Amino acid sequence: MNRRTLFSLPLVALAATAYAGDARGFTHIVKPGETLAQIADRLYGESRLEVVLVGANALDVQGGTIIAPGMRLEVPAPGHHTVMQGETWADLSAAWLGTGDVPRAELLAGVNKGVTWIPPVEGQEIEIPAIVTYIAGDNETINGVAARFWGDPYRGWELNRYNHRGDSVPVRRGEIVLVPMTKLRLTEAGRSEARSAAERDGASGGMALELQRKADEDLPQLLAAVRYGRYAEAIAIGNRSLGGGALTHPQLATVHRALLEAYVAIDARAAAAAACAAWKSNDPGAVLDPVRVSPKIRAACETR
């Protein structure tokens, strides 16, 4: 039996709109001499991931995987979504992974270094993992499917949980098994193509996610620079983070609070007042505790 894997969104009704506004898939034009393994290696960094390209383009429908120069290949990639006010991991899982149940909500939260009981932050850009829809052939096992896509034959139980299957239920011929490709990543070459596609469609292509993650890496350095009195360094780090744009409100609040202290320390009063205003606008719960906050910082925040 010919077997094929198809890349798709679990919510078929959303597939068209998701591709239109998201960098989840983009087109690669085959060049002379290219093979699927070479393309997978260039775009994903692993030649074995040619299986994803085969499935995404239904290349093995007729039992072969031949490609030709000029052929257009759809390249699956992680999607991205900017969190809106009030959205929970269950809401996002229901919209992007088909259901908002615990296994899928946990997977989505985990991919984004979160937990289901703490909602994502408004303005945060999250990653939506690519999902491969695998059509099983004869004599398949769930561990065999896990080995095919994840390289690990002992993770079949995870596929069972994601697909709401019982652990003792055999895989039937023709059965659809959804395989989350949570570790699927694009190389710089792949990201470049994805960004070009995203720009055409008006999406960020993951740029906001990269900036937010970079800010998370910079924040400890920023806070340490303030703590140890390296104010010029703190100001440079803070303004670099702000210059990238796309930060979440909590990130902005942290940066502006640190800049407030640094500007006060170098007696840059106007900049300190502006930093305080920005801090308060991004943190509704901002408090100037008279016991813990210096009079100079409180005075800067009282400047009109």
Care to give the gist of this entry?
The protein is mostly helical. Helix content is 48%, strand content 11%. Helix 11 (249-265) runs antiparallel to helix 12 (269-282).
Number of DSSP strand runs: 7
Helical content (DSSP H or I, runs of 4+) = 40-55%
Distance between the termini: 76 Å
Rounded mean pLDDT score: 80
Shape: elongated
Strand order of the largest sheet: 1-6-7
Instruction: Write down the domain tally.
Output: 2
The string of secondary-structure elements, in order, is EHEHHEEHHEEHHEHHHHHH
Strand-residue fraction? 5-15%
**Largest sheet, if any?**
3 strands, antiparallel
Q: Report the total helices.
A: 13
Question: What's the multimeric state?
Answer: single chain
Gyration radius, rounded: 24 Å
Detailed description of the structure:
With 304 residues, the protein is mostly helical. The chain has 2 domains: 5-78 and 129-201, no CATH class; 207-302, Serine Threonine Protein Phosphatase 5, Tetratricopeptide repeat (Alpha Horseshoe). 48% of the residues lie in helices and 11% in strands. It has 13 helices and 7 strands. The strands form 3 sheets. A 3-stranded antiparallel β-sheet has the order 1-6-7, covered by helices on one side. Helix 11 (249-265) runs antiparallel to helix 12 and helix 12 (269-282) crosses helix 13 (295-302). It is elongated. The N and C termini lie far apart (76 Å).
